[in-house]
Amino acid sequence: DQAPVQVPPVVSAALTVPLATGEQIQYANLDHAASAPCLSAVQDAVDELLPWYASVHRGAGFASQVSTKVYERARDVLRDFVGARTRDTVVFTRNSTDSLNLLARSLPKATAVVLFDTEHHAALLPWKGPWVRRVQTPASPGDAVIALDAALAAAPIGPRLVVITGASNVTGELWPIEELAAVARRHGARVALDAAQLAPHRPIDIRSWNVDYVVLSGHKLYAPFGAGVLIGRADWLQAAEPYLAGGGATKHVVSWGDRLGVAWSAVPERHEAGSPNVVGVHALAVACKTIAARWADIEAHEIALLHRLRTGLREVPGLTELSIFDGPRVGVVSFTIAGHDAGLIAAALSAEYGIGVRDGAFCAHIATRRLLTKAGSSEQRALRASIGLGTTTEHVDRLVHALRTLVTNGPALNYRLEDGRWVP
Ligand code: PMP
Predict the structure, then answer these.
(1) d(CA 79, CA 89)
(2) pTM (2 decimals)?
(3) pLDDT above 90: percentage of residues in the chain
(4) Which residues have a catalytic role annotated?
(5) Is any ligand 1 atom within 6 A of the Cβ of residue 102?
(6) Where's the Aminotransferase class V domain (predicted)?
(7) ipTM of this complex
(8) Ligand 1 centroid, distance to 96 Cα (angstroms)
(9) Which domains does the chain possess?
């Protein structure tokens, strides 16, 4: 074993959880792909801001000025984090789902939308319109480029948008972003990148990749819940009705009898009605800055642990990894174990070993079911282990040991199904 790489610490490093026996054990959180633990640097930054937070853009008081400055500075940090153009707008949202829905509501009339059908539901479902094409995801990145080319060749004349993911939340596999964006560009289409799963693992550079919009979520990037972002070209967002109507999104409101005259604000405020989440946005910005300063260590840590995890999983009898392309991936691995219920395994991992994994279809039902079938399983649910800055070699080794023991000897306890969940 090599010396572990030092990565930015998370606040939950020493967390212990009870086993079904009542004994306490260090928590092995192997569910970073759902939500990542908060960085210690983020906690410190939030602690520092809490006495100062006040209404953003709305007060003359000193604390309001501090909050407004912190909030506006965060836009520049996020712009740098994704390599955006200076003219791109940075709209703060609640999360990636919110960002993608905002973009979907802001498309020019009759925009043709093309995407792959293995997307997370947040990227799969928001698009409405006369021409939305959900292309069946092919078996290789090269075929994905060809399939996109064919779909765009059949798209009607007019505005076009291609929606792609950076890394699959089911398999962690990396998508050929630049190649897909180049095809989109040839067909006069804009590109929106769902970077919810990519952003915690790899640097993003939308300018050099020729991507027009990018979305991400703070809670997957080692900041708490409640802040996300949509970054990209301002014109469509500027021409659209505000996503939410209310204070902050308006410059003037006047009445004339019982009629109203409303002058909406320009972007980004146009789509940020209501009091902004300055604490969440600051946390997100600090997380981005902390990560961006340590990419080399973060990638080395992940590559070493992912290798250890996949090597160990290969030793578990009956285990098959799910894969779209059989290609390079970030630290996310989904799998099925022949003859074993994913929910029961996940429950036993938690109750008997203090390990948190995800079971189910990961808000990507089409992808998960298709990949299970491809893996020769008739199950509807898979297991997913995902690693990140909170992961240690001991967590990985514990998971591999636990799976081998559960598959070979069965669980040590009896389980019953309660509201769809197995409990000891
Ligand atoms: N896209 C991908 C690839 C994701 O993994 C997720 C979260 N699982 C989302 C979008 C949605 O993110 P959020 O729940 O933060 O809106």
Answers:
(1) 8
(2) 0.97
(3) 96
(4) 363
(5) no
(6) 29-399
(7) 0.99
(8) 6
(9) 16-30+295-423 (3.90.1150.10), 41-292 (3.40.640.10)
